[in-house]
Amino acid sequence: MTPTLTNQLYRDVRAKVRRELFKRVDVPWMKAKELDIVLEILARLRPARCLEWGAGLSTLWFPPRTPGLTRWLSIEHHREWYETVAGRNTDPRVEVVHIPPDQGDYVTTRQEGTLEDFRTYVGYPETLGERFDFILVDGRARRFCLQAAFRLVEDGGVVVLHDANRQGYFEDVPPFAHQERFTDWKRRGGGIWVGSKGRPIPEVLDVAAHRHLWKAHHRVARALFLK
């Protein structure tokens, strides 16, 4: 289905009602306009090996929607949340690994954390001797996960970073040859960044169409005095 502004707004409202009124969360914690970017990349890239920092509903929701997938590895720092996600996983292609912080009280806080706090968490995938076709950065210490992703992703692979509205993630971005960043009126969260070392992003994403949609969302936000 081709994404449209109406459909994306409907899905966002539906997800919010289900979450707040019925306490049901059955899609990843992303706006529909963000989900549609990730879904299109997965559909067109057809990655076999995927890596994710930050387990969640994305760990359960994206793999069935990824053609050609053979392995989805998700790294999670929070023990109880890891147990929840791993307990709900029934897909043999998906592996959820718990890597706790090396230091600091980051299990019960929302603080991002430094490389020293999450060195093992950031570095664990590099101990496996694998490379990945698709990497989703959506956990802790994202600046440093993005740097590790540059070393781990195949030349023709794609890296996606969620919450790209946060400017601090882009102080020292690795030299990806191809990059696209989608941001909106929010500053504390939301937004999508897409990068690849060797593949032009339009090969896996209709960049112009999604930018048009994001501009339409921006106009709606302004009309609702959200900016």
Walk me through the topology:
Layout: H1 5-20, H2 32-45, E1 49-53, H3 57-61, E2 71-76, H4 79-88, E3 94-98, H5 119-123, E4 132-137, H6 142-152, E5 153-162, E6 178-182, E7 192-196, H7 207-223
Structure description:
The chain is an alpha/beta fold and 227 residues long. The protein has a single domain (27-223), classed as Vaccinia Virus protein VP39 (Rossmann fold, 3-Layer(aba) Sandwich), CATH 3.40.50. It contains seven helices and seven strands. Strands 3-2-1-4-5-7-6 form a seven-stranded mixed beta sheet, with helices on both faces. α6 (142-152) links the parallel β4 (132-137) and β5 (153-162). The longest helix has 17 residues, at 207-223. The chain is globular and about 45 Å long. The model has no long low-confidence stretch (mean pLDDT 92).
User: Which second-level CATH architecture applies?
Assistant: 3-Layer(aba) Sandwich
Oligomer kind: single chain
How big a fraction of the residues is strand? Answer: 15-25%
Structural class: alpha/beta
CATH homology superfamily: Vaccinia Virus protein VP39
The N- to C-terminal Cα distance equals: 30 Å
Classify the helix fraction into a percent range. 25-40%
- From the alpha carbons, calculate the radius of gyration and give it in angstroms: 17 Å
The third-level CATH topology is Rossmann fold
**H-E order:** HHEHEHEHEHEEEH
Give the biggest beta sheet: 7 strands, mixed
Name the overall outline: globular
> Uncertain segments of ≥5 residues (pLDDT<50)?
none
List key phrases describing it.
227 residues, alpha/beta, Rossmann fold
